[in-house]
Amino acid sequence: MKNFAYAAPRSETELLELLSAEPGHTEILAGGTDLVGLMKKMVVTPKRVVTLMEIPSLKQIQRFEDGSLAIGAAVTLDELLASSDLTDYQAVTDAVLGINSMQLQCQGTVGGELCRRPRCWFFREGHGLLSPLAEQGDNRYHAILGNSGPAKFVSSSRLAPGLIALGASLRVLGPTAGDVAIVPLDSFFQTPRHPSQRETILKPDQVVTHVILPPAAGSYSATYEVRHGSGPEMPLVAAAANLAIHGGVVQEARIVLGQVAPVPWPAPEAARLLRGNAVTVELAEQAGRAALAAARPLSQNAYKVSLAETAVKRSILRAAGLETGGF
Amino acid sequence: MAETKYSWPARGKASIIGKRSVRLDGAAKASGAAKYTYDVNLPKQLIVKSLDCPHAHCRIKSIDKSAAEKVPGVVHIHVFPHAEPGKEIEWKGELLIAVAAETEAAANEGVQALKVDYEKLDVFVQDDDLKAAEAAGRTGSGGTRVETVREPGDDDDEDQFVEQELQRLFNEAAVVVEGQYGIDAITHCCLEPHGSTVSFKDGKLLVYLSTQNVSGSDDGFANAMGIAAGDVEVQCQYIGGGFGSKFAPEYWGLAAAEISKQTGRPVKFMLDRDQELMLGGNRPSGYITVKLGADREGVVQVWDSHQWGTGGNRGGGVSNRVIPYVFAPKNYRAAATTIATNTAPARAWRAPNHPQACAITQVAYDDLAAKLGMDSRQVFKNNLANIGKPEMAGLYRDEIDVAAKLIQWDANWHPHGKGEARGSIVEGLGLAIHEWGGVANTSSCQLRIHPDGSVESFCGTQDLGTGTRTVCAMVLAETFGLNVEDVTVNIGSSKYPNSGASGGSTTVGAVSESHRRAAQDALVQIFDKVAAKLESSPEALEAVQGRIRDKNDPQKSVSWKEACVLLGMRPLEVTSDYQRGTRSPLSSEGVGGVQMAHVAVDRETGIVKMKKFVAVQDMGLIINRQTAESQIYGAAIMGIAYALFEQRLMDPASGAFINDELSDYQLARLGDTGEIVVELYEPDDQRDRGVIGLGEPPVISPGAAISNAVCNALGVRVPVLPMTPKRVLEAIQKASGRA
């Protein structure tokens, strides 16, 4: 690891000052479960590291009058799990529980989880986000959707599919205290096409302060991850479903896949099939196939297509309270 | 003085041997008081970090150290001799230049400032692809072993005869099975990486070394430094894993010593995690095509196989001396091709060759059972008619029956692929059998029994975490009629009497031999003195429950302390040793072992979950039941890891070991192991054989047993280990395409 200056601001204003001083050479630290490893490998070598963990407003979970929920970026996954406010958002609970490590849950934060860098061993070996090695080499965990450009990595957030399915937004602050934007989470992620771009729209002098969840009344959600083992390793594929069901019939549906594309991948085709129908195993299977119809696997990851179909099917069945038929 | 008659106490007489004892150093380890090599920090030490080669195959063109030398805190830069300009580097990660600095950060910055020019050369890492290896000119012969019942005539061309004879036998066979199987290379993954902290002062070298070879490492340092072996002390009290990869000083250890000599400062040089995975040791891969012919009872009459794999840049791979494994059909041909890859050289991994040989051959016996529609257990039993060591057939039969009962084979078994499905989940059973040596290594023990009754032992062995210290104490305590807490065991220094390296499951036998011998030898002298006092004969005395007493008249006794007072003013010192290979009533060699697995497989996701794993293991006489069981639990977990999770992934394009961090290098977690049942098999005829090593045998069978269970569940063979979801799904898809 390279030496760096460490700053621990106590307020959002102080934070913004510290971020803008060294633009492009500053990294935001939350739990550090991702950043520290990247710094040790010198994949990122910031001159300054600014922690969010001393800013009180970022460590709170707040319920607003309209029933929506604001979760501070520095709230740990463990604190989130313990919050009674989470009961209506099963897709989020599922995803946090899936991070099967007490250490990661206690240390990792909501903001950090959403902003963790992509899963790609070529990136983590220092070859950058868009290395051609991903296409030529071992790409068993890489993208099967949205991979026609130079980006072959997969978005690695495990909360994002569930949060997007639930209609979450982010409060993005900066560069000045007056610059506050509410960004729908599905617009936050981007597929970089140029080495200067990152995998989110966040600029070097901006920070995610809160995740905002709309009221979940009347909908049922679930995240289903296919995990090889019981450890904290990343899932092979994931899918989240959020279904509004009345009288046994799906009124509204959102399906979002994870670990399959450079961004969390919404599947409106799957959602369309569900609307106006009762959830059955056959329908969920059809939805799975529809969600992956556009899949274009790389040389070594064709298996992820059927795996992702299964994840979509099982997320729908789980959200509807039905047996998934698997582990 | 009469020669001591060495023996173990009879089962009913033993008060400590064969019972359970927690590790004497367990609390120290759990509390962090135990200092591993990684924990050793010497005053004013320098920290070394090193530049590793970024290319899988290259030539060093030039090195520029000037910028690195200017980094504040950098004290010394050492270019490894194999990395001098002009030298060829054959794997990514090979250490090139070591930077010693005041702090870790300064050392890292120094490494970053080094400038090396490379000429990139051709890269080949696809060890599973024989055709590609041939095309790349990377293959070599691994030899062919042939055995036929019929002999060629004098005029016959031998190769032609064998070809025709095998063909004839295949034609005669009631059933022929053909298959292709494999097992990927894995790494040793020692949690404590290789390395040392050294101090060179006044011509003497002190080395804290993470090693399996305390007594045998001083010479290597002495030779390299040009000093006498007696001027080197190697220390290792605790080690965080070795598994066969930590026998040598290593070039980075020798560099640490050299830097210490050059700078006059102690030096700490431990590998980083990715360096540990890349360099610290790996187990060769093995892939094979098999054709076998069997009779209607499933007894294999003819075997023909061709295997390939890699042990690194020099070729190597799995030896065909153990192909097929345990089973030895009367007619066979086992050919081997080695593949040289741009990967670091393999090192011995727990039971070298055996886990791979078992995993790529006993699956064929299970495929035979499937083809015949027979119970795999019966096919394995029937083939005990043809094994390399026929005298062990009865043992295997017994152990198969014991294991079958524990896993409820009869209730749970079904023909391959014919089990009931719950949703997409199917279950299955599988088994495998293994063999190992476990001979006692050479070992010497010095005992010091003080007039106050205290007992100290000194032995240059090492405790790999398996409980060697505790075994030493149990043997001494049993012999003297004391408790384990009453003796002080000293190990882990090359200044203590020589004891063999811990490899080949030789340590428990070694230390049991030397400590029992020393204790019995000492007891003879003590009995002489006590007999005079008690007016008994020395032969009539026994040491039990803290006293020395007359067996014929137990009232005639003295306490241990009273007995030791009779030694006079000075301690009694006894040194006794055992030479490897000497026939002895205390130890023996040669074990079997049977393992069975019960798995559940999700056909839609390809995920395999362990439900239950049963290990039945013989090991002669058991010293410590608790640590013996622990060895087997650990082996089962390690086996489940390489059966389902572990693989070294080499990127074919760049030649990089792409999962060289533990976040990507997947291991089994406790949640992945299911229920593990360990059964120590120790009937009287086994116990009478004396101590036999146990470290390696139980890690051999898991691959084949679990693969066979998955095949029993799915009705489809997942041919290559580890059985990842990708591979399970691909196997199912291939089979359904065929159907």
Please state roughly what percent of the residues of chain A sit in beta strands, choosing from under 5%, 5-15%, 15-25%, 25-35%, 35-45% or over 45%: 15-25%
Subunit arrangement of the protein: heterodimer
SSE topology string of chain A = EHEHEEEHHHHHHHEEHEEEEEHHH
Number of helical segments with 4 or more residues of chain B: 19
What portion of residues of chain B belong to β-strands?
15-25%
Please state how the strands of the largest beta sheet of chain B are arranged side by side. Answer: 3-5-1-13-10-11-12
What would you note in describing this structure?
The complex is a heterodimer of chains A (327) and B (739). The model of chain A has no long low-confidence stretch (mean pLDDT 96). Chain A is globular, with a radius of gyration of 19 Å. Chain A is 30% helix and 20% strand. Chain A is α+β, with helices and mostly antiparallel strands and 327 residues long. Chain A has a 5-stranded antiparallel beta sheet with strand order 4-5-8-6-7. A 4-stranded antiparallel beta sheet of chain A has the order 9-10-11-12. A 3-stranded parallel beta sheet of chain A has the order 1-3-2, with helices on one face. In chain B, strands 3-5-1-13-10-11-12 form a 7-stranded mixed beta sheet. Chain B has a 6-stranded mixed beta sheet with strand order 7-17-16-15-8-29, with helices on both faces. In chain B, strands 18-26-27-28 form a 4-stranded mixed beta sheet. Chain B is built from 19 helices and 29 strands. In chain B, helix 9 (354-372) runs parallel beside helix 18 (702-714), helix 13 runs parallel beside helix 14 and helix 16 packs across helix 18 (702-714). The N and C termini of chain B lie far apart (79 Å). Chain B is of the alpha+beta class and 739 residues long. Classes of the chains: A alpha+beta (327), B alpha+beta (739). The A-B interface holds A 1-3, 37, 41-42, 100, 121-122, 124-125, 133, 136-138, 140, 226-231, 233, 236, 303, 306-307, 310, 323-327 and B 105, 108-109, 112, 274, 423-425, 600, 602, 604-607, 609, 644-645, 649-654, 656, 658-659, 661, 663-664, 666-672, 724-726, 729-730, 733.
